[in-house]
From TrEMBL:
Limits of the 2Fe-2S ferredoxin-type domain: 259-349
SUPFAM superfamilies listed in its UniProt record: 2Fe-2S ferredoxin-like, Ferredoxin reductase-like, C-terminal NADP-linked domain, Riboflavin synthase domain-like
Keyword Iron belongs to the record: yes
Species this protein is from: Flagellimonas pacifica
Top-rank taxon, per record: Bacteria
Protein name, entry field: Ring-1,2-phenylacetyl-CoA epoxidase subunit PaaE
Gene3D superfamilies, sorted: 3.10.20.30, Nucleotide-binding domain of ferredoxin-NADP reductase (FNR) module, Translation factors
Length: 349
């Protein structure tokens, strides 16, 4: 898809010794295009060392701010994260895709008690969600459990402290540090005992309307399982993975033959033949078709499409609901074709 826009970076701010916040300048002509809901992400496209890279980053600023800011933590041996932390400067221009994503908070008139469990850079969408919840209703409350190695390595620590001062009786933070003993912080990682401490002890009188979980897959699974064991219904647990364990593609081993594929993108239709052992998105990109994608690891939702004819099966799926899969939606970066013909529509999602 050709819906990337060249945006200038208005500021680069250090969050920790290993993380920066990039704020983009949005021209008036693109204000509507880049309007977003708290919790959504943007995809950045840029050439690093001569190679095009795409990365999805959650928006940390609140919609009410009129700005789009993302936080980027340096990953050891990372490509774009290292580039962002060491090279990008104010005034640079990067191609940016408009906001998308399903890990969101939509405002309504009802009062809300919300809790969030985040680890590391998983705080970025939570910052936007927390600010929006607190400002949208004068009785809303927000509890944040935030895991990091130390307070020095805690992204948005100053912004969190500002929110605590502004919403003293409605915004509550429990830091958890795995490599440093910090004042008023639990020592260790976010685990079963941490969740139980929050919902059965510290905030046992609070009836939470929803739980937002963001971070590594292991943390999300632990928190989600503990919440369910405490009687929290699944509909109240929303999550977004920032990293996912690698899944072996055993499905490809049993597939043989070719599939004739018809792909619709931006009202254009393309036809080609592909090996069933190949993932649909990989085959589409090999044909130089401008399909939407970002992580290529089944973590974001950029590559979702609808299967309108034929069948495809995903290696893993941690985003789409059973109902959405039944409707024909698929993560094309995880899908293998199973039938002799397959029609894929990226527009009908």
């Amino acid at each position: 898809m050709s819906d990337f826009h060249a945006l200038k970076i208005s500021s680069v701010d250090a969050l920790t010794p290993n993380a920066v916040a990039l704020t983009f300048e949005i021209p008036d002509s693109l204000k509507a295009t880049f309007a977003f809901t708290a919790g959504q992400y943007i995809t950045l496209k840029h050439k690093v060392n001569g190679q095009e890279v795409r990365r999805a980053y959650s928006i940390s600023s609140a919609p009410s701010s009129g700005e789009i800011t993302v936080g980027i933590k340096k990953v050891p041996n990372g490509t774009f994260s290292v580039y962002a932390n060491e090279t990008i400067k104010s005034g640079d221009v990067i191609e940016v895709k408009p906001p998308e994503g399903r890990f969101v908070f939509k405002k309504d008139s009802a009062s809300k008690n919300i809790a969030a469990f985040a680890a590391g850079s998983g705080i970025t969408p939570i910052m936007s969600i927390a600010q929006t919840i607190l400002e949208s209703n004068p009785v809303n409350t927000f509890v944040l459990v935030f895991g990091n190695q130390s307070l020095q390595e805690t992204m948005y620590l100053k912004a969190i402290e500002v929110l605590q001062e502004k919403y003293t009786n409605r915004f509550f933070v429990q830091h958890v540090c795995s490599r440093a003993q910090e004042e008023n912080a639990l020592f260790g990682r976010i685990e079963t005992s941490t969740v139980n401490f929050i919902i059965k002890n510290k905030f046992k009188e609070t009836n939470f309307d929803a739980f937002y979980l963001c971070g590594p897959e292991e943390m999300i699974n632990t928190v989600s399982d503990t919440l369910k064991n405490n009687g929290v219904v699944e509909d109240k647990i929303l999550f977004e993975l920032f990293t996912s364990t690698k899944t072996e593609d055993t499905l490809a081993e049993d597939l043989e033959g070719k599939t004739k594929v018809e792909v619709t993108v931006d009202d254009e239709t393309f036809s080609f033949s592909m090996d069933k052992k190949t993932l649909v998105l990989d085959a589409v990109l090999k044909e130089d078709i401008e399909a939407p994608y970002s992580c290529q690891g089944g973590v974001c939702s950029s590559c979702i499409a609808r299967i309108t004819e034929g069948k495809a099966e995903m290696v893993k799926n941690q985003i789409l609901t059973d109902g959405e899969v039944a409707e024909g939606l698929v993560l094309t970066c995880q899908a293998h074709p199973l039938t002799p013909t397959l029609k894929v529509d990226y527009d009908d999602v």
